[in-house]
Amino acid sequence: MMKKELWQIQIDAETYSVTVNYRKRRSMGLRYNPESKDFTCNVPVYIKKDEIFDFVKKNAKKLVERGKARIAPNPVEGDFVYLFGEKCEIPSFSAWKEEKREA
């Protein structure tokens, strides 16, 4: 039988829910879902709650930052290249006009 617990943690003034699943396994795992802003932590049955909390607190901030970076749009207006030692920006293909793209 799998045991579940629901926790709340606070990172940078935001509250996130954590679902802790106790399973028959050897190591701890933590996943973050940026759309629903919640964590899922799979842990072995024999691990103490203090160790689980430290593990979640240690890794949660990194996962939140990665999730925000993945969702945020990455505006690409051009490519930077070095010509004769000078850095220049060349417009990307999407910035060209329709006539130029087809030619």
Specify the structural class. Answer: alpha+beta
Q: Biggest sheet: strands, sense, closure? A: 4 strands, mixed
Q: What is the helix content?
A: 25-40%
- Our measurement of the CA-to-CA distance between the termini, rounded to an integer number of angstroms, reads 64 Å
Overview of this protein structure:
The chain is of the alpha+beta class and 103 residues long. The protein has a domain at 3-71. Helices cover 27% and strands 42% of the residues. The chain has 2 helices and 6 strands, in the order ββββαββα. Strands 1-2-4-3 form a 4-stranded mixed sheet, with helices on one face. Strands 5-6 form a two-stranded antiparallel ribbon. A hairpin with a 4-residue loop joins strand 3 and strand 4 (38-44). The protein is elongated. The model has no long low-confidence stretch (mean pLDDT 83).
